[in-house]
Amino acid sequence: MNVQNLIVCDSKVIFNILQEIKEKLNCNLFFKTEQELSKIEDLKNYIVLSDKNIKNIDNQILIEDVPIRINKLLEIINISFLKVNFNFQSEINIGYYKMNLNSRTLFKQSEKIDLTEKETLVILHLKGRDEACSVNELQKLVWKQSSNLETHTVETHIYRLRKKIKDKFNDDNFIASLKDGYKIEEKK
C-alpha cells in the first residue's frame, strides 16, 4: 500500500480538524457516513476513523475517549498506517494462493493452513523460479547444511508440505517434483 487513505466516519468535526492539518498526516482524507462506507467494495485499502465500532471493518481506529489531544490522535493514525503497511507487505501471491509471512499461513479463498518456519522458507525459495530448485540447493538455502551430507530432510519436509496442501486444498500440483528438483506451479 503506497497511498494511504483515511476515512473519517460520521464525525464532521474530526474531519474538519484533520482537514486543517492534513499536511501532517500525509494521506488522502475522506468523509463518509456509515451508510456510504457499506457501499465501498474494498475497504482494506483504507483506515476508518470512527467514534463507534463498525462491523466488518478490519482497519479501524476507534476513538472513544473524547476530547483527545491532536498530537495523540496523529500518533494513533500514524501507527495505524504503519501496521497496515506492515501487514500489506507481508502478504504475497502464489498462483491461486496467498501466503502471509507474519502468521506463516497459506490461504486459498477462506481456507487456510498453518505453516512451519521451514515450510514457509521452502515455499519462498521455490516461488517465482523458472527452473526447478535442487534438493542440494534447498538444503543449503533453507537448512544451511552442506550439500555433501546424506540426508532426506528436504524430501521429508516437501512430502509433508505437499500432504498438508493436498489434505486441505485438494491440490496435488502446487509443488511439482521434477527430475532436477522441485518447482511451484504458479497457475492463475
Short description:
With 188 residues, this protein is an alpha/beta fold. The chain contains seven helices and ten strands.
Spatially, the strands of the biggest sheet line up as 2-1-3-4
Q: Provide a count of the helices.
A: 7
Helix content: 25-40%
Assign the structural class, choosing from mainly alpha, mainly beta, alpha/beta, alpha+beta, or little secondary structure: alpha/beta
Order of helices and strands: EHHEHEEHEEEEHHHEE
Oligomer: single chain
Average residue-wise pLDDT:
86
Poorly predicted parts: none
- If you compute it from the alpha carbons, what radius of gyration comes out, rounded to the nearest whole angstrom? 22 Å
Question: How many E-type strands?
Answer: 10
Coarse morphology: elongated
- Biggest sheet architecture: 4 strands, parallel
The fraction of residues assigned to DSSP E strands is 15-25%
Gap between N and C termini = 22 Å
Describe this structure in words.
By secondary structure, the protein is α/β, with parallel strands linked by helices. Helix content is 39%, strand content 22%. The chain is built from seven helices and ten strands. Strands 2-1-3-4 form a four-stranded parallel sheet. The chain has a four-stranded antiparallel sheet with strand order 5-6-7-8. A two-stranded antiparallel ribbon has the order 9-10. Helix 5 crosses helix 6. The longest helix has 20 residues. The radius of gyration is 22 Å and the shape is elongated. The mean pLDDT is 86.
